[in-house]
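Notebook entry, structure prediction.
Reason for the run: the old model in the group folder had no record of what sequence produced it. Starting over properly, with the input documented here first.
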Amino acid sequence: MRLDMDDPDDVVLAAGNVSGSVTTESDKVISTAKDLTVDQKPASEWDRAGDWARRWIQNALAESAHDTVNTAYGLFVETMVSAGELSWQDVDAGKAIPRSDLA
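New structure, fully documented this time:
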């Protein structure tokens, strides 16, 4: 029986593309969050409450985007490690069981 899998380099490349896309989109979220501004200083209690909520939203979006990038990068690293290990297992198994595909 043969294990049918994509080439480990292809898997790592795809994971890198996904991680890069996540980073690009997260950067857009951070940029958009920074653009959430008001034209004047809050003057009333309602204005100050609204400004506090705006700052909270900015921070929440930025933190979430950073966390998402970190998670995507962690998954990319994990994919690289796993693909490498699987590749070496395949090499080792091929050496340990010569002509195993004839069974």
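Summary: The chain has two helices and no strands.
The old model has been moved to the deprecated folder.
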